[in-house]
Amino acid sequence: MEIDLTDDQVLFHDTTVRFIEAELPVAATRRLHDDPAGYDRSWLRRGAGIGWFAMLVPDEFGGGSVSGSPLVDAAIAAEEMGRHVQPGPFIAMNVVAGAVAAHGAPARQTELLPAIIAGEVVATWACADRCGNWDDGAGLRAERSGGDLILRGSRGFVQDAASADWLLAVATLEGNPVQVLVRASAPGVRIRPLAVLDLSRRLAVVEFDAVVASADAVLGGGAGAVEAALLRAVVLTCADTVGAVDALLTMTVAYAKDRVAFGRPIGSFQALKHVMADQALFVETCKAGVAAAARAVDAGDEAAPEVASMVAAYVGDVANDVAQECLQIHGGIGYTWEHDLHLYLRRVRSNASLYGEPGWHRERVCRYHRLGAVP
Q1: 240/84 Cα distance (integer angstroms)
Q2: Angle at the Cα of 9 (from 318 to 306), degrees rounded to 5?
Q3: Which of 329, 330, 323 is nearest to 346 (CA)?
Q4: What is the DSSP letter of 355?
Q5: Is 100 within 8 Å of 109 (Cβ atoms)?
Q6: pLDDT of 375
Q7: What is the DSSP string of 3-70?
Q8: Which CATH number, 3.40.109.10, 1.20.140.10, 3.40.1710.10, 3.90.1150.10, labels domain 223-368?
C-alpha cells in the first residue's frame, strides 16, 4: 500500500514476503488447487509464527500489532497474500480474532485467542446469506432456550468452512444482529462445499439445524460489533485485491517489453502505452484508497464506514477492469491454463463478490447521506 512504513513494518513485510517465496510461491499453490482443504495446517502454523493472526488481538491475550495500527499492519500482510495468490483463511481468522478479542466472553477469549494466534485453531467468519449477500444475519435465527441458544438457518460463501474448527456466525437474536461462536463439528452443523471461481479459495454453505450454543458463545456489541467486523473484512479484502492487481500489472508490463511484433516490443506501441499508463494510475489510486480506509478504521473515524465502502466500490470495479485489460494485452497466452494470469484474474473477481459487490457498497454510501430510496 502507499503508506510510509516504519522500520518494524518493513521488517514484518519483508519477513512475510521471504516466507511466502520460500514456503508457498505461486507455482507451488497450483498443487493445492485440487486439495479439499486448499492449504496445509503446518504451513498455517508457520505463518502464524510471523504474527499473521496476532495483529488485531491485544497484548494481554498474547497478540499485538507491529506498529500500533493493527489493521494497517494486517493489510500489509493481506496485500502480499493477494500478490502471491495465497490460500487459507488469513482474512477470516483475523476478523474472528479481532471480534473475539473486542467482544467475546472472558472464557472464550482465554480458550480461543492464543490458539488462533498460534495457528493451532482455524476460525472463520460466516456472515452472508446462501447467495453471498449481506443480510444482517436474517438468514440465521437464534432463539433462547433456557440458558442456551438454538440456531436455525444457513450462512453462505463461508471461507474455509470445511477445514475450520470454529465458526463465528452472524445471526439475528430477538430481531437484532449478533455474532455467535459455534464449533464446526457441533451436532446439526452441515457444511456443503461450493465450486468456486478462485482456485486458491474454498467456500461453502453452512446449514444450522437446531444447533445448540451456550449463552457465553454470543459476542457482545450487537450491530456495532458486526459492523466493525465487516469493515475489517472489507479493508483486508481490498488490500488482497491491490496485491493481486499490482502483480498483474507488473506481469503485463514485463510481457509488453518482451513480446515482439512487427519487429518491435509491443509495449512500444502508443495504443498499449496509453492503456498501461491508465492501468498504473488506477492501481496507484487503489493503493492510496486502501491505505486511507485502513487508517480510518484503525482510528475509529466516524466516516470510516463511508470511506471503506467508497474504496470497496472503487477497487471492486477498477481492479476487474485492469485485470481484463491485462488479459487483452497478453493475448492468446493469457488464456492458457499454464500461464499464471488467470489465477490473479480469478482472485480479483472473487474478491469483488465477497463482503458486498461494488453496487451494494455504493448503496451504503447513499444510505450514509440519506440519498435515494435505499432501504
Answers
A1: 10
A2: 40
A3: 323
A4: T
A5: yes
A6: 47
A7: S---HHHHHHHHHHHHHHHHH--HHHHGGGTT-SSSS-HHHHHHHHTTTTTTTTS-GGGT---SSS-H
A8: 1.20.140.10
pLDDT in tens, 318-328: 999 999 999 99
CATH number of 7-121: 1.10.540.10
Quick one: pLDDT band at residue 220, thresholds 50, 70, 90? very high
**Among 235, 220, 185, 236, residue whose Cα is nearest residue 101:** 220
pLDDT digits (tens, 9 = 90+) for 298-307: 999 999 999 9
Give Cα 238 to chain centroid, integer Å. Answer: 7
CA torsion, points 336, 286, 74, 10, in degrees to nearest 10? 90
**Length reported for the chain:** 375
User: What letter represents residue 164's amino acid?
Assistant: A
Q: For residues 145 and 374, what is the distance between their CA atoms, to the nearest angstrom?
A: 36
Question: How is residue 137 annotated by DSSP?
Answer: T
The DSSP secondary-structure symbol of 139 reads: T
CA distance 253 to 57: 39
| CA–CA separation, 216 and 183 (whole Å) | 13
Average pLDDT in the chain = 94
Listed in order, the ranges of the chain carrying CATH 1.10.540.10 are 7-121
| pLDDT over 90 percentage in the chain | 88
List of residues 6+ apart from 358 with CB closer than 8 A: 312, 313, 314, 316, 317, 352
Level-2 CATH architecture, domain 124-220: Beta Barrel (2.40)
- Looking at the whole model, is its pTM more than 0.90? yes
- Residue 268 pLDDT: 85
